[in-house]
Design a protein that fits this description.
With about 425 residues, the protein is α+β, with helices and mostly antiparallel strands. It is built from twelve helices and twelve strands. The protein is globular. The structure holds zinc ion (ZN). The site of zinc ion (ZN) has 9 residues, from helix 5. Zinc ion (ZN) binds next to helix 5.
């Protein structure tokens, strides 16, 4: 009898459910704890969505979006694997660094998770391994491009808006003469040295300058491009974002050049810029290609959209597997002769290029763009992981976790993944 009573007083264990208010979670039962936790977090998500939209439907929509985005990622992975196999097929037995590189590239973006960034409800992906080869990996190049846009676009737009009539942006390609094979490392250093010499070139002070800026007689020299007065008080190049590239040309030598976005207040003379470039390089005919960044009404692009496009142009995928002609070449008149794609380079050339570019800092900023803070990183603990991503040899597959596959969810929660910004593009500039 007594036993019977006790049995009635202690309720049997029940499956936890988000709607059950009074529930005791056994801490030793990780699965139960996990389900409870996830159900609560999903409730939080659902609250953010509003009553009209069901959580399950939204998650299914997000899953659909992920599957669609992964097609683009798959394209990049195919490109990367092509490069990896090119290296694997050509590297000599003793070149251990190339073997490590190939292993890293084969594993790059092979598996990961997708989830929702909590309050913003944005789809993010996390990857178990990234090769981080900023010169060889199309994923890394794209990430660099996005980081560049997030970091430099808002300050550039703010800078223009302060004096819309007098301030302009120019996209400029500085082209020193091509560098012969075997001399790429020196050629790259020389290109930067020439660029610095161009940017820091001095000229004589004119009587007009003296009158305008009230400079004393003892001041005889001033910067030709870089203003001597604090930013904003005088004409000149107020800031620069520069990026160096070195594809192999069709002739078989290195086409080292520097792409730059110049922030110019006041007049800017192409001809004078060209002459100064010839002076510092000592090569008559060393070319500069410059064009102002403007809204493009024909293509229906606003100034901000055009600027974003040009910023993406600043960093191109070095391997150039897409074969898009670079800016410098487009204006050379007649049909452009394109260099071969990376996977068609002689391996000697690749070896030289890889060792010359490894560890070299290719993006530099000056003036008002110097030492801007890094954009905020994504926070992993704000992501609610919703599914797994894996590569099946030809493309990606993505799952959507259900209530039951606890193991997969726990794996997602404990995984050491590198987060990636959403495919929808960089953040809009703050209003
Ligand atoms: Zn990679």
């Amino acid at each position: 009898m007594r036993q019977e009573l006790l049995r009635h007083r202690i309720p049997p264990p029940r499956d936890p459910h988000p709607r059950t208010r009074r529930r005791v979670v056994d801490p030793h039962r990780a699965e139960q704890a996990w389900r409870w936790h996830q159900a609560r977090r999903n409730q939080e998500l659902a609250r953010g969505l509003g009553p009209a939209h069901g959580l399950q439907r939204s998650l299914e929509e997000a899953h659909g979006a992920v599957v669609e985005e992964l097609e683009l990622v798959a394209h990049r992975r195919h490109v990367e694997q092509e490069v990896a196999e090119y290296i694997a097929g050509n590297a000599a037995d003793h070149e251990r660094d190339f073997y490590d590189l190939v292993h890293s590239m084969r594993a790059c973006h092979a598996a990961g998770f997708w989830g929702i960034l909590d309050p913003e409800w944005r789809v993010v992906r996390g990857w178990e391994h990234k090769c981080a080869q900023s010169h060889l990996c199309p994923h890394a190049v794209r990430e660099n491009q996005q980081r560049l846009v997030r970091r430099y676009e808002p300050p550039m737009l703010r800078w223009i808006a302060q004096k819309p009539g007098r301030r302009r942006l120019f996209y400029v390609v500085f082209e020193p003469p091509n560098v012969p094979r075997g001399a790429l490392r020196d050629g790259k250093a020389q290109a930067w040295a020439w660029w610095q010499a161009w940017y820091r070139e001095q000229r004589d002070v004119t009587p007009e300058d003296r009158r305008r800026w009230r400079w004393p007689r003892c001041k005889r020299r001033t910067g030709r491009w870089r203003p001597d007065l604090p930013w904003g008080r005088s004409d000149g190049v107020h800031g620069v974002l520069a990026h160096q590239e070195d594809p192999l040309s069709a002739r078989g030598d290195w086409n080292v050049h520097i792409n730059a976005v110049l922030l110019v207040e006041g007049p800017f003379s192409y001809r004078e810029a060209q002459r100064a470039w010839e002076r510092v390089t000592g090569v008559p005919g060393a070319r500069i290609h410059a064009q102002q960044i403007k809204a493009d009404p024909v293509a229906g692009r606003t100034f901000a959209e055009q600027l974003r496009l040009e910023l993406l142009e600043v960093i191109k995928y070095s391997a150039k597997l897409t074969g898009s002609p670079d800016k410098g070449g487009r204006r050379r008149g007649g049909a452009r002769v394109e260099g071969p794609p990376l996977v068609a380079w002689p391996f000697d050339a690749f070896r030289e290029w890889y060792r010359a570019t490894k560890g070299s800092r290719r993006t530099r900023s000056y003036g008002v763009l110097f030492r801007l803070p890094d954009p905020e990183p994504l926070e992993g603990d704000r992501v609610l992981w919703q599914g797994e991503i894996w590569w099946n040899g030809t493309g990606y597959r993505a799952s959507l976790f259900t209530e039951d596959n606890f193991r997969a969810r726990a794996a997602a929660a404990g995984a050491d993944v590198a987060l990636e910004w959403p495919e929808s593009g960089p953040d809009p500039p703050p209003a």
